[in-house]
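Appendix B. Chain record.
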Amino acid sequence: MILSITMNPSIDKVYLVENFSIGGVFRTKDYTATAGGKGLNVARVVKAMNFDIIASGLLGGLSGRFIKNRLDDLDIKDKFLNISGETRTCINITDNMNKKTTEILESGPEVKGDEIDKFLKNYRSLVDETEIIISSGSLPKGLSNDFYRELIKIANCKKKKFILDTSGRYLKEAIKEKPYMVKPNQEEVNNLFDINSNNIEDCIQPLIEFKKMGIKMPVITLGRQGSVGLNKNHIYHFKAPNVEAVNVVGSGDAFVAGCAIGLLKDNYIQTMKLAMACGVANTLFIQTGKVTKKKVNYYKDRIKVEKIYEL
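Structure tokens predicted for this chain:
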């Protein structure tokens, strides 16, 4: 069983708008509203691949009710804690004509102390039911920057694999607790290590540093260039075929979902190929966190793997 945690979920609205610019009035070519937040994108992909998953975190208000209804529709096990604040809404404007996206992200509600305590009590019991824990995205107001450290500590004490997908100050604090896996992108790695990495070779040293910290499965995602990861004493570059993307939002979350599934059943190379295929498949749909098994299996067979460094 996989557990996906979304502490700051949202209703994700995606608008397809051709030739979008600031200050104009536009009609959408297409649009969608989904139960969003990185962890919920993960949950949808895991479920689409026919694996069981529990979704948890914090939900509140009418937006929270919308998300709960969507989880019921997808038959995803809902273990969210209801809070008094209103769950946020995030907007993505995708202009495929100019290959640009614009995002507007609400900060989310402020969480109260007793709500945090209730969540942690529920989380401890959920960890006992699962093998892989994923926690993704930002934290709402009311939670400290080191909150993810507490989640990782609980998982590590129970000898469960924890996949962390966050950035900035949350990532900087959380890696001190040695999550099993992290997957920052190149920009996030640059900020974390105060470097200016802009090619694949520049990722080698950060991966080694992650390993020294005690992170067993460090991965750096590179957008169209694929991803690089360290396993034991080898660093690999994984590259997917080029596709005509409809919407790239949620592809990193789909990648994480593939990692979680792979860790349940596959070796490292097959896990990473599955993760890459999930990320690629997600770009073919307007919905965030959307894949089909058929497309994932098709692209998994077409992922190229190259060993680029040996420690």
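Further analysis of this model is presented in Appendix C.
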